[in-house]
Design a protein that fits this description.
The chain is mainly α. About 80% of the residues lie in helices and about 0% in strands.
């Protein structure tokens, strides 16, 4: 996330790019040859996602500045479909969380739904920061594995 934040000022845009990077990395995991560090490989993917993001943003701004009616049309056309996709994804995430161990489900909800820091989670659960970091790491792995299995 820090790598992307250094290149993208807006927090929401940085999160979106990070998500795209992780999805792309997951889909391309078989192509990782080990000739570089895994982090270096991920940064390369992130660079491409950042470039794509700015390219799309520039094109969108150019199109909508010259054809303002097109933005309204696109919003109307994509609105219902995007809402449906969002609802489907939310349902899949909820189902995946339901299939996880309660400890993992709890720590993921505290971190990603409530937005608590690792320190705040540790205090709330009366655990050490290292314990929470470790549990979050394992929880994310379990989530990714379960989510991928549920979608197959």
């Amino acid at each position: 996330m820090n790598f992307v934040r250094q290149r993208v000022a807006d927090e929401d845009e940085a999160k979106e790019i990070l998500e795209e990077t992780l999805v792309t990395a997951w889909e391309a995991r078989g192509s990782f040859s080990g000739r570089s560090a895994y982090f270096t490989w991920l940064c390369g993917i992130a660079r491409h996602e950042i470039a794509d993001f700015y390219r799309k943003k520039r094109l969108k701004n150019l199109l909508f500045s010259h054809l303002p009616w097109l933005e309204d049309l696109a919003t109307q056309a994509l609105g219902p479909e995007q809402e449906l996709l969002k609802k489907e994804l939310f349902g899949q995430v909820k189902a995946t969380l339901g299939n996880l161990d309660q400890k993992y489900r709890q720590v993921l909800r505290l971190k990603y739904y409530q937005g608590l820091t690792v320190l705040e989670i540790a205090q709330k659960l009366h655990e050490t920061v290292k314990t929470v970091e470790s549990r979050l790491f394992r929880a994310r792995q379990a989530f990714a594995k379960t989510f991928a299995a549920d979608r197959s």
